[in-house]
Design goal:
Layout: E1 3-4, E2 12-15, E3 23-30, E4 35-37, H1 41-52, H2 55-58, E5 60-65, H3 72-85, E6 91-92, E7 104-106, E8 109-118, H4 121-124, H5 128-139, E9 152-159, E10 162-170, H6 177-191, E11 196-197, H7 204-211, H8 214-233, E12 250-258, H9 259-272, H10 276-292, E13 296-301, E14 322-327, H11 333-348, H12 355-369, E15 377-381, E16 405-413, E17 418-424, E18 429-435, H13 442-459, H14 469-473, E19 484-487, E20 490-493, H15 494-504, E21 510-515, E22 534-540, H16 550-561, E23 572-576, H17 586-591, E24 596-598
Parallel strand pairs: 8-9, 15-17, 22-23
Antiparallel strand pairs: 1-11, 2-3, 3-8, 4-7, 5-10, 6-7, 9-10, 12-16, 12-18, 13-14, 17-18, 19-20, 21-22, 23-24
């Protein structure tokens, strides 16, 4: 096995030469043979998001504290070794504007730039990591030009010529959070003067070759079938409730450190005979579903692909969701736990797919179902990957056990409602939570984490009935009044659907009835499961006889459904000549003659 050792490096510099001024180093690299080939599915998935989403949301960042005494030359040379070692850092994706790339190009040689920024005492007020975090976050702004940009924006923060931190932002087309963790670990090894063993993890091109094989295509097809089944049967959105406001909001990070939770996790695993990560996933899903008032927990698990052979330390982006659909009907925590392992395995083995075909399928399924797919809940357990500061508000600076501590960190824009990163499960539980302020006050976000600790402590000793979760955890389900119903497994506001139908029909009078299932929700959010419930929309024609078709109404309505979690398109539309005297009387609408009717969900032939 060969070794990779830093070699002397004299980078070129630009900028002012005084030691207290920012400068730019241009670092050359030479890595061997240029290569090209198709994209791996994880790359395609992230590039699709990069071309669509705000760069602040899709770019990622990290902060690497440097070992004491790290020189600028050693830091730069270690970065050069990483670029030569990992093809993903030498990869570009040529493409025409507006098109997805069809090929990736790996360069054999080239240069990249690193900014050196001396830190001043007044710049970070005695909190160098927070200053580095701010620098890294600012670097997320602006799109990476996929066809030509180096995928890392690197800044060395120095004091008196010695590196204190590396602050960086990264293109999600090149690396994911776990890949950054691997790079961080290897960089620290290199600046310490220790050579690295030859890399054995799969490269992006190796992975793409495997995925485009016949066996890889069969796995992708199976994954698409699994996703379609979940999308047709599970809740369209975990969080649909009265106080949810439209629009994105910056979400603050809340970090938990708890030795109590770590002890409880180990005790619960011993009592139930289940692995610690499975117990934690079951507890987290139980509490998330309880807060949302759902009988199914639908959660994305982006790190699932790292569990496959040869990919644990692969430096590329493997960010494709495992879509977990976990039955939360209980009646106890242990019953949920018994289902969790199988549900997680089912999700993990169906987490590699053609993302373009997936989103085409999501579009057709949601139209036919009259719903929207909301990636509301994300659970990212990175506790088994190399230690890294990614996703944490502050690095762990001491070995003191924290029985239970909470720390608020910086805000960022996230396209999800509830995001959790698990950093460690022993000896203490360490995780970070981002809870959408449109749903959770700061007190409620803190309550979600302390409630998780309380649940773990309870299940460490005994099985817990789900009906007692509010008392055990202190977390209350979302309040919903009688206007809210579960239809087709989704929470909807009947009055909101009715108003949306009227708007979709050109402001004609409309009435929406919930039929075929029990009515009402109750203030605690515990309502019917929605099995058999259907939405029927009645629309009155205009006085001049103008009447839209069910297809026209449904098409217009779906533009609203795509933006609002409380809406579900009706299963059936009935067009009548006029509204009854009492527009709230469902029976009166039924007695009117029918001009035309249809479901609107199927495209006309």
């Amino acid at each position: 096995m060969t070794e990779v050792t830093p070699r002397p490096l004299v980078p070129t510099e630009r900028g002012d030469r005084p030691a207290d001024r920012e400068r730019t180093h241009t670092v050359p690299y030479a890595a061997g043979v240029a290569r090209r080939g198709p994209l791996a599915v994880g790359q395609t998935n992230m590039i699709r998001c990069i071309l669509r989403d705000d760069p602040v949301q899709i770019n990622i960042h990290d902060v690497w504290p440097a070992p004491d005494g790290t020189s600028v030359a050693a830091a730069l040379d270690a970065l050069r070794v990483l670029v030569e070692r990992h093809e993903a850092l030498r990869t570009t994706f040529p493409h025409r504007s507006g098109d997805l790339p069809g090929e990736q190009h790996v360069a054999a040689e080239g240069t990249f730039e690193v900014t050196e920024r001396p830190q001043h005492a007044d710049a970070y007020a005695g909190a160098p990591h927070r200053y580095a975090e701010a620098v890294a976050r600012r670097a997320r702004e602006g799109r990476f030009r996929l066809g030509r940009d180096f995928p890392l924006r690197l800044t060395l923060l120095t004091r008196d010529g010695v590196v204190s931190h590396v602050a960086l932002a990264a293109s999600h087309a090149a690396v994911d959070g776990t890949a950054l963790a691997v790079l961080h670990e290897e960089w620290r090894t290199l600046v310490a003067g220790v050579p690295l063993a030859a890399a054995t993890a799969r490269t992006p091109l190796d992975l793409a070759a495997e995925e485009t094989s016949a066996a890889g295509q069969r796995k992708s097809e199976a994954s698409l079938r699994y996703w379609e089944r979940v999308l047709r049967t599970a809740p369209q959105a975990m969080f649909a409730e009265p106080r949810l406001r439209a629009g994105d909001a910056s979400t603050a990070q809340l970090s938990l450190r708890s030795a109590r939770a770590g002890r409880a996790l180990r005790a619960a695993a011993a009592r139930t005979g289940s692995p610690v990560p499975t117990v934690l996933l079951a507890a987290w899903c139980t509490l998330a579903a309880h807060r949302a008032g759902q009988d199914t927990c639908v959660a994305a698990a982006p790190t699932s692909n790292r569990n496959r052979s040869g990919l644990a330390r692969s430096v590329t982006t493997l960010s494709q969701d495992a879509l977990l659909s976990l039955d939360m009907s209980g009646p106890t925590f242990d019953a949920v736990l018994r289902r969790t392992w199988g549900a997680a395995l089912d999700a993990y083995r169906h987490s590699r797919f053609d993302s373009v075909r997936l989103w085409d399928m999501i579009g057709s399924v949601t139209r036919e179902r009259g719903s929207r797919f909301a990636r509301d809940v994300v659970f990212n357990d990175v506790s088994s990957v190399p230690a890294t500061s990614v996703g944490t508000a502050e690095p762990v600076q001491d070995d003191e056990a924290h029985e239970l501590s909470l720390l608020w960190g910086p805000e960022q824009d996230l396209p999800t409602r509830l995001l959790t990163f698990v950093h460690a499960v022993e000896p203490e539980l360490r995780l970070s939570l981002w809870a959408d302020p449109a749903l959770f006050t700061r007190q409620e976000a803190e309550g979600q984490l302390t409630g998780l600790v309380r649940l773990l402590e309870a299940v460490a000793h005994t099985d817990v009935p789900l009906e007692t979760l509010t008392d055990v955890t202190g977390v209350r389900p979302a309040p919903r009044d009688a206007d809210w119903h579960q239809v087709d497994g989704c929470w909807i506001s009947r009055s909101a659907v009715e108003q949306a139908v009227s708007e979709a029909a050109g402001s004609l009078p409309a009435h929406v009835a919930v039929t075929g299932g029990p009515e009402g929700a109750g203030s605690e959010g515990a309502g019917p499961d929605g099995v058999g419930s259907r939405l029927v929309a009645f629309v009155a024609a205009a006085p001049d006889g103008r009447a839209p078709t069910s297809h026209d109404i449904h098409t217009a309505l779906m533009t609203q459904v795509a933006l609002r979690s409380e809406l579900l398109a009706p299963h059936h539309y009935v067009i009548v000549p006029h509204a009854p005297r009492d527009a709230t009387d469902t029976a009166a609408w039924h007695r009117l003659p029918v001009l035309t009717e249809g479901n609107g969900r199927r495209r006309p032939m």
